[in-house]
Amino acid sequence: MAVAEPFDEKDLWPTERLWAMAWRRLKRVLGHAYQRLPFYRKRFEAADITPDDIRTPSDLARLPLLTKAEVLALQAQGEAPFFGMEWWARQEPSVFLLSSGTVGTALLWEPWSKMWRRSLACARAYWHMGLRPGMKALIVAPSWHLVSLLDRMVFELIIPCEAVIVPWGTHLPLYAGPLLDTILDQRPHFVNMFLPMLYALLAECRLRGVDPKEAFSSFRTLGVTGAGMTLKAWQELDKVVGEGKLLEGYGHAEAVVSNGCRERLGHHLMLESAYVEVVDPQSGTPLPPGKRGLIVSTVLIPQGSLYIRFAPGDIGELLPEPCPCGLPWPLIEVYGRIEDQVQVGHLTLLPYDVRTCLDEVQELVAVSGAVVRRRVPLPYLEVLMERPPGANVSALEQRIKEVIGRELGLEVKIYWAQALPARWKGTPVIEEEELRNV
Amino acid sequence: MELVVQLERALPDGSRYQRLGPKELGGYALALARCWRLAGLERGDRVMIMDFGCSPLSYLASSMYCPFLRRGAAEMVGCIPVCNDGVGTVIPRAIRMIEVLQPRVVYLRGDLVPPLLQALQETRLCVRTWVVGAEEAVPSAADLDRLAQASGGEVLGLVRLDAALFMAQQCSRCRAFHVWTDIYRVWEDRGCLATAPRFSPDRSYVSSLPLRIVKGMCRQGPRHIRLALLP
Lengths: 438, 231
Known about the structure:
The structure holds two protein chains of two kinds. By secondary structure, chain A is an alpha/beta fold. Chain A has helices at residues 15-36, 38-46, 68-77, 112-129, 146-158, 176-186, 195-208, 212-215, 231-241, 351-358, 393-408, 432-437, and strands spanning 66-67, 86-87, 94-99, 106-111, 136-138, 163-166, 190-194, 221-225, 246-248, 258-260, 267-269, 274-279, 293-299, 304-305, 310-311, 314-318, 331-337, 342-344, 347-349, 369-373, 381-386, 412-417, 429-431.
């Protein structure tokens, strides 16, 4: 199926041509890093290779993965503000961005020209999500975050908006009140926000007795990012906010930009700004589409802070099938974080896998739950669930056991709690000690 | 095309939104750049801003942060900014970023002073100047003194009147708040500070801040108006 409204001619290219473009750019970035950046020169030399040795995607396994912990160590010891992984071509405006995360916060030095080129990829993603010139757009991301800078460029310079609206406060759920005021007062059409803030906005709507469908009725697109959602969770949330406007994206400050589409099979990767691999977590070898592994990305714009074969710790897979929406940009699905993996019997599971099963039981779709991790793995799965008010718990248990047995081939032990701590967002993994405290 | 910013406090007409085009943003950013220079920032320096993205201290810092802004303070002065949000919970992250980046000046929201003081009990930072900002309030002298003692750096106050797109910053030399006469008109209205930006004259505003105009001149800015603002 052809794309009805392409952003540009690349939206009409075959997927293979997009991959070939990304590969050419990747080769150029590798050569640039080897020649000019001391940090990467040392990594190439330690691996006893040069960029010329990387001829096919499988050769990339010879270049070690870059982790956030390594970057943090480099920045802690380096000579501020540059650490051997930055490049600039000319004097131009620049800022430092922060890349927060569970391991710590790293700095990225980003000049205007790099942000401009990354924002072209972002503009394409937003175009696919429904942003059009003349709309009113909200910026919810804080100034230290990449999304804020991309939004700034896209909304003014690439897809010019009638108004760009900045609410008071920041992106944290605590500031849902002023954000809801802004939405109700200014009636924006487009936003890309973090998923926890959307949940906080829904709670604020409940508190004020406002119907979320009415509150969000001005939005043509409500983009969310920052946490994986199962298909059922997304369908339920889409119904709550007003059907057809909720889209989920995936990205990180170091490289990746992607967008979800209405087919909701995965996220379309914008290969013009990042080369993306899914690799075996142990060997670093690229895996074929359809195989789950560690997501690894390389930014394809050789300016500012350069992240090559960066593994932020996300687990996902490149999807083998083309998307029915017609966009040729390849699909990636993200399932969770490597530190959230749980070993049960012979399986390595993520909370996403368990949540997908729980969502098969209609009464549990919006109910909080947690997956228990033991120091010594057990042969059966353990799940802690919040008890739905008035529910027949034994009937629910039976249905959970059926679906877990059918989908994962595992037995399951279920614990019920009156309420789970509010700090447990989504479906977290909890350690066995925490189970005793609930 | 315009930027619509939700304000911390409502405007005199009750609205909580301010609409800004390129001209207003440019004039407002020039005032911030003058504040930066008064704080000692020079080409090549790094500056940290600990405030929300909706604060003019943040969005005027760079054209990379703000749509419709042609040149931010960073482009005018030649600095590289880093923002770190305006909530107390991110103070530990700010401390680490300051250690890594070593900014010459840090601008922060007044309500971040107490958590920052707490954090400074365990850490020593090499920041030359801290500037504490507040909207229609003068940062408390006691807070500024405590921060100066805890940090070992110089501490200055900055007063904003968002309704009039106004900023005035304390001078390290004379301790008065400097105002730039080519950017703002300033007068006294019933003992309080009143002002209007020359780049957007309709936005005049009479504040609740008692003032005294300081006579004489300061070598940091011989043509600046100098104000003694009372809390």
